[in-house]
Amino acid sequence: MGWMSVLPPLVAILVVFWRKEVIVALLLAIVTSELLHTWQGGEPLIYTFVATIERIIAVFGSASNTRILVFSLLCVALLAYISVSLAALQLLLKHCCRVGLVKPNAAPA
Asked: What's the pLDDT at 106?
């Protein structure tokens, strides 16, 4: 395969810089990898998508991989919750300043 083995990570890097979407970039890297395997094996290219789905499902066959994925999803959920909570807190503080319950800090001179 030679230099073509660089294509999947290169696709992932380019998509991350272009779209700022990590999950999409990783999925496209897997599809690119399976496309190269299918092309090298001489099989029809439609098998690329079947092989991609099988490879993604195979990740859940290992308990440690599943634990890592669940932990990562919980971290993302916690960060999303913190982001929403901070936005709600900022709105509450703005409302309290507008109503006059709290005085805004004066900017230092």
From this structure: 52
DSSP SS3 for 107: coil
What digits encode the pLDDT tens for the residues 39-58? 888 888 888 888 889 888 88
Secondary structure of residue 42 in the 3-state scheme: coil
Q: Which residues of the chain have pLDDT under 50?
A: 107, 109
C-alpha–C-alpha distance, residues 18 and 24, integer Å: 11
Cα 34 to Cα 38, 61, 64, distances in angstroms? 6, 19, 23
> Measured between alpha carbons, how far is residue 19 from residues 28, 58, 73, 82, 103 in Å?
12, 27, 21, 24, 42
Please state, in angstroms and as integers, the Cα–Cα distance from residue 38 to each residue in 41, 49, 109, following that order: 5, 10, 67
CA distance 59 to 53: 10
The pTM for the full model equals 0.61
